Structures are given as structure tokens and as C-alpha cells.
Amino acid sequence: MKPKRIRCEIYHDNFQNYRKYGIPKAQLVIADIPYNIGADAYGSNPMWYNGGDNSNGESKFAKKSFFNSDGYFKIAEYMHFCSRLLKPEPKEKGKAPAMIVFCAFDQIHTVAEYGARYGFKNWFPIFFCKNYSAQVLKANMRIVGATEFAIVLYRDKLPKFNNGRQIGEDGKPIRGTGKMVFDWFAWERDGKEIPKIHPTQKPVGVLKRLIEIFTDPGETVIDPCCGSGSTLRAAAELGRNAFGFETDRNFYKAAQEKMLAGVHAKQAEDEMQEALW
Q: What is the pLDDT of residues 142-186, one digit of tens each?
């Protein structure tokens, strides 16, 4: 039987232009929206100072935002297009698509409200616990943040959910299979094999866990604001089709040449194998 090739593509373009690329509809849209922290983006990070030492004076990152695009990001427009990127609502239970949006804690209800305007009537939050904090400059002044937040949005039916449950020959779940999935996850940092490209880059391991829960192999994951390309790498390594959009030329180039180099090499190998059939 001819093997089915997985596609993984990143486009140097706005996600609003998705139609011209002919990409399939997604089972899962997953993205990280601007956190609206503006000029305080590096406020609790040692990068605010030269060499991470306040005695060396402020660095070029002081009083700077992470991205030039933060100021004109429109969440309503984002929700409008994400609703179109997702598969239509299926008739069957257990197959519905979902969207995951990483955001700041105080953005959760705003994201949910805008989602509802574009058909995402339901949502639930998920939390990520770290064993470290980027707020090192405040470590001796107050309790520091060591969590990340996201919201899972869906239309009507509960989204596809994989927890290891097995189905017997009679079509019924096998007792004792399947694990409870909590609404919090350990935030495990990537190893040295994963390049650090983007200031708000999410760990590949964390993204893989989410993709495993909400999709099956062969389905499609789309990241409309893909930055480093870590979501695409996570999806492709799990045998999912992966598509992303990035407007910043430097991030796009780094994602292609560093984050996705191994994925593209595997794609080329698969194409050669396919040609032999």
C-alpha cells in the first residue's frame, strides 16, 4: 500500500490569505496571540539590562514590545478567520474540531467573548505549571508568575478527545483503559535539540501533548501566527499535517532553516519513497 505523505508548510504571509494556498481544513487551530503587555514585555526579564545585570544599564530591549505587530493585532479578525480555518461541525459525536489560544490570564474572558461572536459558543481554560519563572527581577519583591494559560474553544459538540481509551470488538469502551486528563499540564522546557527562536516560543513537548489529545494521526493542525514553527514541528513529528503563517521575515527564515529543517528533510525522503511506488 502506498504510504500517505504528511505535509508541513510555513508561509511568509498573513493568515487572512489562507485561501490561495489550498490548505485543508483543520481539526485543531492552535496559536499564541499578543499578550498586550506593550513596552513592558521585558519588564521582569533580565534581558531588560545589558548582560542581565542592572549595574550594566538598560539594554536595547528596555521599554520595548516583543513585536511590531502587537499594536495592530485584531482579535475579532483573528476569530473570524480561525472559524473558517477549522473543519465544519460534524454530525457524529467525538469528532468535532477545536481551537486552542494561548493568552494572558486577564485575556481569558475577552478571548471567550470574541470566540462566541464567531460561533465558538463553548470553552474551558487549561493551565500550565512551570518550575521556574521569567520574572527573576521581582523574585525578592513578591510572588512571581510561574504559569501559562490557554483557552480551548469549540462550537456545539465537545471536541475530539483522546485519553488512551480503547474500544473492543463489540464497539464498546474497554474498562480500565483511558486516563483522566487534568486541566493543568507540566510546562517542561525543551532540550538543546530544539532551537530557541522566538521570545514567546512554546515547548514542543507541551504542544505535542495538546495535539495528541485533540487530533488523530493524518489530521491537520494550523497555527495562524506560528512564530518559531514549534507547533508545526510538534504536529509533523506526530504524523499530523501542519500549516502555519508568519509575517515576520526573520522568524519565518529561522523557522524554515532551524526549527523545521529535520521535518523538511523527512518530507524530501518521503517524496523519494513515494516516487518509487
A: 788 899 999 999 999 999 999 988 878 887 878 888 889 999 999
| pLDDT tens figures, 31-64 | 887 754 444 555 555 666 676 666 777 776 666 6
- The DSSP symbol for 241 reads E
Burial of 145 (0-12, 13-18, 19+ CB in 10 A): middle
SS3 call for 209:
helix
Q: Name 194's Cβ contacts closer than 8 Å, sequence gap at least 6.
A: 203, 204, 230, 233, 259
Beta strands per DSSP E along the chain: 8-11, 28-32, 98-103, 122-129, 147-154, 184-186, 220-223, 241-245
Q: What is the DSSP letter of 108?
A: H
Question: Where do the domains of the chain lie, and which CATH numbers do they carry?
Answer: 8-33+74-123+147-174+200-276 (3.40.50.150)
pTM for the model stands at: 0.86
Sign of CA dihedral 111, 116, 120, 125: positive
